[in-house]
């Protein structure tokens, strides 16, 4: 079949992702992949999920294996609404839509809001999955909060963007936090300019150290003082990093008029997200299990973050710098100016270690001398070995420059 003449212009515009090839490089036996933001399989609560599955099947098998609510299982939405509500922000189950992973949330928000050529503000670099989800709309991406603290919100709000998108907590790919001051100034600007932000928060609960910074959803509710969500922040949450990514359960929180619009589109996308997976996520999370598990994950991932930082301090030459995240999965490394992380990747693969080159996360050019490393997948000894191999490749490249 000659498919090229049938494929839509929209899809033809998409370039095949070079990342696929990079992930495949990580499949070899002796390759340490610091590329994917993937939990260690040993951290996934298999026994708890087995028990939850048994309970769901024996207590409500007929309901769980059937079609169900497009908005999501009510018990799960009630659980999330209670979990996210605070003294000054009450979230109703009606504010929540369960999605098939938060990635589906990004896709749905894009489908509801974007027209061809719309302006979207992001940090640069940003999460590659947002670029992928929205690439076909031919958006005008503009960076904000990417340089110093002096980003001028009045300037970037004109003309008004269709959406802003941030991973405010332990950002993918940098591991950095959006400061509380920036969150507060953003919330004010949202209200002043009647603009919207999508706050994508899969990592917020994986905090190893430092004070918790309130989400923009909370800050807006605090700012308006109505006790409800304010409506300018759309929040995307996920069970992927705190329970299991294989369950594919995420959620969106939004004000009710937008929830109704998203529901219209979700019908066409998948009728409902897996009812079975939602019941299992609900059952597994209950009785305090989720909070107890998150506490353990914080300790385990913190140990790996420490191992990666210690190894980078030990093996990397001093001209290489890196972020020191207080949570999440990722570290961003900066090579000396002029060094190319794709060239480095080729040499790293030969030594049995892979990562994601920084330019993959950039909305335009840039990031050529950056790379993202993930510390989520391996034990400290293997992280150390991966960084040792990477450092050899870096030193070899630096030596050839002089
Ligand atoms: C920032 C960010 N958003 C969304 C996702 C998608 O997560 P999921 O669809 O598994 O909930 C990821 C996954 O790595 C992520 O890093």
Description:
It is a single chain. This protein is α/β, with parallel strands linked by helices. It folds into 2 domains: 9-45 and 291-401, Aspartate Aminotransferase, domain 1; 47-287, Type I PLP-dependent aspartate aminotransferase-like (Major domain) (Aspartate Aminotransferase, domain 2, 3-Layer(aba) Sandwich), CATH 3.40.640. Helices cover 44% and strands 12% of the residues. It contains 14 helices and 13 strands. The chain has helices spanning 9-12, 18-25, 46-64, 74-84, 101-113, 128-134, 153-156, 180-193, 216-224, 256-270, 275-285, 289-315, 341-351, 380-401; strands at 32-33, 96-99, 119-122, 140-143, 163-166, 197-200, 233-238, 250-253, 321-322, 330-334, 353-354, 356-357, 370-374. α3 (46-64) packs across α11 and α13 (341-351) packs across α14 (380-401). The longest helix is centred in the C-terminal third of the chain and has 27 residues, at 289-315. Bound molecules: pyridoxal-5'-phosphate. Residues 37, 101-103, 127, 129, 167, 172, 200, 202, 238, 240, 245, 250 line the site of pyridoxal-5'-phosphate.
């Amino acid at each position: 079949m000659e498919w090229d003449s049938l494929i839509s212009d929209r899809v033809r515009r998409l370039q095949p992702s070079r990342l696929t090839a990079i992930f495949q490089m990580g499949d070899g036996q002796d390759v340490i992949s610091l590329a994917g933001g993937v939990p260690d399989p040993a951290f996934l609560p298999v026994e708890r999920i087995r028990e939850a599955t048994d309970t769901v099947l024996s207590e409500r098998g007929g309901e769980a294996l059937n079609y169900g609510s497009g908005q999501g299982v009510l018990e799960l939405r009630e659980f999330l609404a209670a979990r996210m509500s605070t003294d000054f922000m009450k979230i109703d189950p009606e504010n929540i839509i369960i999605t098939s992973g938060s990635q589906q949330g990004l896709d749905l928000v894009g489908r509801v809001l974007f027209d061809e050529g719309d302006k979207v503000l992001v940090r640069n670099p940003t999460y590659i999955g947002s670029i992928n989800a929205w690439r076909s709309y031919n958006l005008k991406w503009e960076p904000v909060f990417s340089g110093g603290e002096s980003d001028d919100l009045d300037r970037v709000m004109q003309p008004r963007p269709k959406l802003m998108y941030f991973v405010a907590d332990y950002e993918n790919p940098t591991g950095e936090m959006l400061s509380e001051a920036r969150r507060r100034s953003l919330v004010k600007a949202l209200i002043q300019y009647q603009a919207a932000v999508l706050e994508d928060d899969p990592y917020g609960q994986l905090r190893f150290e430092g004070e918790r910074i309130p989400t923009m959803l909370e800050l807006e509710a605090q700012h308006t003082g109505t006790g409800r969500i304010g409506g300018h922040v759309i929040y995307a949450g996920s069970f992927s990093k705190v329970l299991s990514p294989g369950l594919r359960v995420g959620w969106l929180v939004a004000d009710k008029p937008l929830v109704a619009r998203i529901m219209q589109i979700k019908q066409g996308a998948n009728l409902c997200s897996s009812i079975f997976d939602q019941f299992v996520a609900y059952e597994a999370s209950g009785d305090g299990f989720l909070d107890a598990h998150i506490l353990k994950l914080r300790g385990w991932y913190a140990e790996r973050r420490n191992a990666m930082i210690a190894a980078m301090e030990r093996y990397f030459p001093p001209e290489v710098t890196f972020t020191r995240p207080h949570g999440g999965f990722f570290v961003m490394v900066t090579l000396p100016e002029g060094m190319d992380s794709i060239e480095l990747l080729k040499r790293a693969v030969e030594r049995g270690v892979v990562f994601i080159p920084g330019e993959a996360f950039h909305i335009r050019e840039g990031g050529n001398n950056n790379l993202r490393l993930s510390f989520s997948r391996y034990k400290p000894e293997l992280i150390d070995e991966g960084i040792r191999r990477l450092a050899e490749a870096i030193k070899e490249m630096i030596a050839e420059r002089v």
